[in-house]
Structures are given as C-alpha cells and as structure tokens.
Fold:
Amino acid sequence: QVQLVESGGGLVQAGGSLRLSCAASGQNVGSYAMGWFRQAPGKEREFVAAISWSGDSTHYAESVKARFTISRDSAKNTVYLQMNSLKPEDTAVYYCNADLAFAGYFGSTSDFPFDYWGQGTQVTVTS
Structure:
C-alpha cells in the first residue's frame, strides 16, 4: 500500500506561483512513477504532469508546458509541482497519484487504472 498526501495549495493572483508537494509513504514508493492531475468544477479530471520512478523522464500536458515543472526528491519520497505564471483556468483541485507504469501517463489517462491517489489540494487563481 502507498499513501499520498498533497499540500501547498492556496489562493494566488494570476501571474503568481505555487509549489505543490506530494509526500508518499508505504512499501517501495521509490519504484513508482508519480503524477499530478487536476479537476476543475464541472469538468473531468485531467492529466497535468508525470515523472518516472528515477526522475529521469517527465511528461506534461500541453496546457502547462513551460509553466509547470515536476520533480521528485527520492530521499524525502516527495514529488513537487512548481507552478509559475498561473492563470485563472488553472483553478482546480490538484491530485497526486502513483503507478508502477510510467507509460500509463501517456495517451488516454482517463482510462488508465492508476494504483494510488491522494485526497487533493485546492488551487485557486484569481484574475
């Protein structure tokens, strides 16, 4: 079992920055690829970014490329999402997840049965 706890959400003005954290605990957490998803009110949950278990590979949604950066600190079993140049349309609940298959973060992520999910953290960007 793997437990994921997100933190770092909040209220920020457009153009501002936030850094989300996802602390992982449990067995073999270092073996999992990890990702961030988000869900805005009235919309489906969508993929944001993912990082391989080694941290060597990353993958981003087109809507956040060049603005968001995903990273991981293996010593702390924590994954980060640095969000810069935030826009009101980035407002959503952000979820961290983990899966043994990094490939699951490519293609139709809504159909992929990811192993573990966190509870989410709210990010609100005001104009």
